[in-house]
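Board notes (copied after class):
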Amino acid sequence: MKTHWSDHRLIFLAVVLTILCGCSRPADTVTGTVTFRDKPLGIGSVILYCEDQQIIHGLISPEGTYTIPNVPRGQVRVTIRTPSRQRELWRQQTPTWPVINGPVVPGSNPSIKPSPTTIIPTRYEVPEESGLTVTVVSGVTVFDINLVR
């Protein structure tokens, strides 16, 4: 039996459509509020470590809310990072000699003190230590995060 060129095109089209429809996993949204000491955190990032090795993050608004779109479904480890913690880490790693007519390294100015209300415990920055996980399901997953000492 002879096959026609159009038969091959139909088979090719069917294979391509199957690949396009079957390879992408559904992605959904994770949203919520981050609080620390029962107050909205108001600054920083929520970082998601997905089962498929993706790392996705979203910014925390001044009201303490965050929304992260395009998160694959499944179990996700969660960490929180705040800028004041980053300044503290820079200060610990930055040499203390004076800079003359050169760039100033962020966090190298000892007169800038991080606000104690935005310094969260360091365990929340490490996926294996944060203790924060969420299962992402279809649609929107609400995950409120209450950080404690």
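Comment from the instructor: The first strand starts at residue 27 and ends at 36. Confidence is low (pLDDT under 50) at residues 101-117.
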